[in-house]
Amino acid sequence: MPDLTSHPVRGAGLGLRRGLLSEIAAMDDDAVDFMEVAPENWIGVGGRFGRQFRAVAERFPLVCHGLSLSLGGPAPLDTALLHSVRRFLDEHDVRCYTEHLSYCSDDKGHLYDLMPIPFTEEAVHYVAGRIRQAQDLLGRRIGIENVSYYAAPGRQLSELEFVNGVLAEADCDLLLDVNNVYVNSINFGYDPYEYLDGIDGARAVYLHVAGHYVEAPDLRVDTHGSAVIEPVWDLLEAAYRRWGVLPTLLERDFNFPPFGELLDEVGRIRTLQQQSSRYAAAG
Prior knowledge:
The chain is of the alpha/beta class. The protein has helices at residues 21-26, 47-59, 79-91, 121-138, 159-170, 178-188, 192-198, 230-243, 259-282; strands at residues 12-15, 34-37, 62-65, 97-100, 103-106, 109-115, 143-145, 173-177, 204-209, 212-216, 219-222, 248-250. It has 9 helices and 12 strands. It has an 8-stranded parallel beta barrel. The chain has a two-stranded antiparallel ribbon with strand order 5-6. Helix 1 (21-26) links the parallel strand 1 and strand 2 (34-37). Helix 7 packs parallel to helix 8.
């Protein structure tokens, strides 16, 4: 069981998106417990957006989830980006920094998508080394997110073996995306609850939940553009039973509903957290 007092934030959070800034500015301080930002979207931003961001940073605890470090990419790590991120984290007292266990660039430039890393022993060693390098340059531990993927080129290990292998060799933290576990379980035919039982959840700093798109009965696409569905809520509840009530963030990137509906989903996270806490206390 992880030490819940050691987590960077508590409760239920929401991703900061520019399309939501006016609603976030108007919401009550207790509407969410923390906010997540992509540092690449806010580093060096001034003017009205910069002022709005600073106002949010003063009201809510922040965590950062990066978009472009490309931990599995063939090109050298972007050290200039890492130095910029470190200054950003320090300036805004960001509680933790996470990135995707994927790659999004090669030696020609950015690919503007999250590409799957081959599930091989060689890739475990390669990515773990890059994570250690990133942690050294940032001066702090980072968390890696299990990503959705739609092909598994050169697979030698299972997804679970690969993720756990990277976590152990890099000695880094985990951002567990519950929706991605569900999406991948449909697309690749595994049991998502067995995945939860097998992942090194003691390393989890917080969780993600999100909506996805149903392309076909056996194909789901991780979009962050719709409401969270019941099987994902069920899986989130199972994660709480497995590791205790971890901080959890609602991701929504586009196709925004009325803001009250997003806060209702944040409220549902809180309700599950409260129910799970009572269940644990009773047990």
